[in-house]
């Protein structure tokens, strides 16, 4: 599937983007953002949360955008968790960047520079197409194509990749994860501040068992 098709699927899978019309497949990219306009870094680094903020179970998702096991979770397992627990108000998922390499850092930065409501659809597309952009000779150049299809201009993308405060903030978040939750590998999931912990490429059933313990 081409980039436009992938993003069209990612932006219309029910992850909560309003106002996106059903344009022809080749033109289903989001409306362009104002050129080179980025919010303050504090806003760019704000937590990205999927689900009801008041949900009784919180999953901290520590993932690297270039991690194959993270891609499996996001493309195969998360949709099941979303249907069973997130959409029903029982769970909220908080994405925590844990980049292991420069390409992963670039992908995290790009996702944070997209409008907040496009964060999860864009990360979904990036995980689905991970093998393409992560192995490119110039990952940031490859990532820029996804940014454009998500409605970002080249000027905005360039400003995003040049934002050292954003990069430092993402790397600092990784350090906090290492110190607070002893994260050593991705994906790692911390449920309700450590009441349950899931590590690695696990099935939906493993997550369901851990979540159900916390819902009793």
From TrEMBL:
UniProt keyword annotations, A-Z: Disulfide bond, Oxidoreductase, Redox-active center, Signal
Record's signal peptide: 1-29
InterPro entries, per database record: Thioredoxin-like_fold (IPR012336), Thioredoxin-like_sf (IPR036249), Thioredoxin_CS (IPR017937), Thioredoxin_domain (IPR013766)
GO MF: disulfide oxidoreductase activity
Origin: domain of life: Bacteria
Pfam families xref list: Thioredoxin_4 (PF13462)
Domain Thioredoxin: 27-216
Role this protein plays: May be required for disulfide bond formation in some proteins.
Family, as annotated: Belongs to the thioredoxin family. DsbA subfamily.
UniProt protein name: DsbA family protein
Organism of provenance: Azospirillum doebereinerae
């Amino acid at each position: 599937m081409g980039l436009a098709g992938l993003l069209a699927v990612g932006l219309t899978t029910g992850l909560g983007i309003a106002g996106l019309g059903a344009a022809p497949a080749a033109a289903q990219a989001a409306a362009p953002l104002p050129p080179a306009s980025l919010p303050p870094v504090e806003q760019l680094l704000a937590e990205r949360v999927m689900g009801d903020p008041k949900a009784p179970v919180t999953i901290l998702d520590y993932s690297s955008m270039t991690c194959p096991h993270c891609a499996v979770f996001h493309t195969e397992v998360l949709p099941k968790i979303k249907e069973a627990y997130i959409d029903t108000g029982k769970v909220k998922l908080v994405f925590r960047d844990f980049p292991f390499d420069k390409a992963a850092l670039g992908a995290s930065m790009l996702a944070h520079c997209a409008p907040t409501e496009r964060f999860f659809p864009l990360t979904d597309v990036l995980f689905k197409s991970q093998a393409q952009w992560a192995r490119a000779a110039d990952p940031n150049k490859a990532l820029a194509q996804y940014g454009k299809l998500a409605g970002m201009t080249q000027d905005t993308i360039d400003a995003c990749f040049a934002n050292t405060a954003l990069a430092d903030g993402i790397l600092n978040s990784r350090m906090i994860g290492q110190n607070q939750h002893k994260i050593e590998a991705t994906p790692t999931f911390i449920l309700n501040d450590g009441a349950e912990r899931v590590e690695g490429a696990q099935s939906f059933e493993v997550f369901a068992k851990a979540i159900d313990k916390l819902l009793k």
